[in-house]
Request: fold
Amino acid sequence: MKYIKITAISLFLFLLFFVIGTVASVGQYPKSEFDRIAQRNIDFNGGAWILGHKQKIIDSDFKTIVKPAVDFLYSFATLDASAGAYVLSIPPIDRYFVFQFMEDDTDVFNYIGSRTHGKNKALNILLTPPNYKGETHGLETLELKTEMVWLLARFQLLNKEDAPNVHAIQNQVKFTPIKDWK
Reply:
């Protein structure tokens, strides 16, 4: 009888610690995934506030995004709000596009795109650190929710022959520190 009680208590403690460990691990997964991707972006792009481009048409080898859409080309960056405010300049784009901003738990907290701003208009949007009190130059402002933000941009690809047109669009998107703005 004593052996059964010890076994039952041991099993209960094992399950309790297993559940606690699993919940703690699952709760930390988004943050650790964000940190991994943010660092990969910085390494690939050569720093924060530099947009990297995936200019290869999506195929089965593409692993950067869990479920990529095959009719888009992607760009990405890690934004470090501790570096101050930056202006995101987007050229006029004649197709669907979206820039998604993700905070450090991987939730999308805001986006800019053809649905919110229309097509064929050049955009200059000030991206600010939380609680920014500096100069805005009258620009539309988007406040970043956390110090580190992951930016994922998608540009519609009409067909394989359209890839050079999307590459040209991707290459025109840029970040400028507010201190260097006009």
Observations:
- The chain has a mean pLDDT of 85.
- The first helix runs from residue 2 to 45.
- DSSP finds three helices and nine strands in the chain.
- The beta strands are 52-54, 72-80, 86-90, 97-102, 108-113, 123-128, 140-143, 148-156, 174-177.
